[in-house]
Amino acid sequence: MIDQQTKLLGVVGQNIGYTLSPAIHNFSFSSININAVYLSFDIKEDKFKKAIDGLLEVSLGLNFTIPYKERIIEFLDSIDDRAEKLGAVNTTVGRRGFNTDFEAVKTLVKERIDSLEGRKCLIYGAGGAARAASFALAELGCTILLVNRTKERAEELADRIRGYGYEAKVTEDCHEADVTVNTTPDPEKLPCHGSKLVIEFVYRPVETTLIKSAKSLGIDSINGIQILVRQALYAERLWFNNSVPDMKVLEYLYARKLVW
Question: Which CATH code, of 3.30.300.30, 3.40.50.10860, 3.40.1190.20, 3.50.50.60, is assigned to 7-98+226-256?
């Protein structure tokens, strides 16, 4: 029940009617008896400045998705070192910025592969999710290969990665790699033959072409819903120092047929 003590949180993006974030967080809040409500705020780019100032003032915290993970930074008082490195924020606590996408990818990968030192990682895309995946995998020892329709964006990200002492380059071909990552909503067919791991950020459908291909080849994979849930629960730990287990949320989403 919403009352005067209820904390307001939400996700900010554009064209986000599909988002599962409210379902994930409101279920989690209810499960651990947190008096909070989580809403979605679909904001057009020309209204962002006016809307975000108000939201930052009245909310305990927010999540940010396409196209605002980079734009939000100028409205914040501070961002942590990780978000500074990535140049992207997906979670705020008041006017402080963080990036839980990074931690989600890094921990999910470490649960599956002991070492990626010296391995090649192909990342399709150059936006906020690609930044998180790139730095997470670079920290684990991978050389980053970037493919993006807008080459300038990929070059900018490669320069940023190299600026922190990691190896990265832009390529025009989807070379086979030890790890294959898709961060775009509509990629061309990505090769994953020879990969040890496939990572897919798209979560509707969960069984994307890339995930199906990986399964048919016996390649381990991390799907978009696993990433979404993991980063969401890391955000909750920033807001409340508490969260439910990943599996409990995943079981809820599948039981309610919110993912397929």
Answer: 3.40.50.10860
